[in-house]
Write a structure and sequence with these properties.
Elements: E1 9-12, H1 18-29, E2 33-38, H2 41-55, E3 59-63, H3 69-83, E4 88-91, H4 106-134, E5 137-142, H5 155-175, E6 180-187, H6 193-206, H7 210-219, H8 229-240, E7 251-254
Parallel strand pairs: 1-2, 1-4, 2-3, 4-5, 5-6, 6-7
Length: 263
């Protein structure tokens, strides 16, 4: 299937590793030139070199912290200066610290909002005008299954990511007639470095192999396995494509059947 992405420009946030890296890599494989960003320069440069070598596409690597407005301004300015436009925006960021309501202070709530909600709003604000001018654009937000089934020890993430979904649903209706779609994707348990790290930490604490921890996670998933980042990336690439022009305002989980809700 031709996704119609040849020579489109995609900006993928938090893309030096994990889900963001898989999304950038897959979009490049489909013919996009990509802008990648993360806080760590070394990992970012390594990822850029890997994507260039594997796909032959242009890759612009810009170090930035998406929770900081001035970094977002510098990132988007660099993308437009290099490529002239951004057609596809994949909003992504790591999660705020875990904990319950009584663990949190004001600064924790504000940091979570900046990281997960305001980063999405600010990146969208910067790039939406160009999409509207050209009459074509794709905005895809990587959130979490917690927006459909809140997780008990992640009150900050549950709250901030739910705000992303509400914003996206509202915006989708406002720009749908202009050739712009806005959608959310919700990964479940994916085999990222972060999940491997969690498994290794537990394995050390419990004196057993990390692989047994991952297999234990899989037992709570109807598919009986943890997902691969490339599986979420394939969904993102489809939603970014011309084939998905009539899909907007949706929140789609990629979770092996983990979420039990009807919608």
């Amino acid at each position: 299937m031709d996704l119609g992405l040849q020579n489109k420009i995609a900006l993928v946030a938090a893309s030096s590793r994990g889900l963001g890296k898989a999304a950038a890599w897959t979009l490049a494989q489909e013919g996009c030139d990509v802008v990648i960003t993360a806080r760590g320069q070394e990992a970012l440069d390594r990822t850029a070199d890997e994507i260039r070598a594997a796909t032959g596409r242009q890759v612009l690597a810009v170090p930035a912290d998406v929770s900081v407005l001035t970094d977002i301004e510098r990132l988007t300015d660099a993308a437009i200066a290099t490529f002239g436009q951004v057609d596809i925006l994949v909003n992504n960021a790591g999660g705020p610290r875990p904990g319950v309501f009584t663990d949190m202070e004001d600064e924790d709530w504000l940091a979570a909002i900046d990281l997960n909600l305001m980063s999405t709003i600010r990146l969208t604000e910067r790039l939406l005008p160009g999409m509207r001018q050209r009459g074509w654009g794709r905005i895809i937000n990587i959130t979490s299954v917690s927006v459909k089934q809140p997780l008990p020890n992640l009150i900050l993430s549950n709250t901030a990511r739910a705000g992303v979904v509400a914003m996206a649903k509202t915006l989708a209706g406002q720009v749908a007639a202009e050739g712009i779609t806005v959608n959310n994707v919700c990964p479940g348990y994916m085999l990222t470095d972060r999940v491997r790290g969690i498994a290794e930490t537990r394995a050390d604490q419990e004196d057993r192999p990390a692989q047994s921890i991952i297999e234990e996670m899989a037992q709570g998933i109807p598919a009986r396995r943890v997902g691969q980042p490339e599986e979420l990336a394939a969904l993102i690439a489809f939603l970014a494509s011309q084939r998905a022009a009539y899909i907007t305002g949706t929140t789609i989980q990629c979770d092996g059947g983990l979420v039990k809700s009807l919608l």
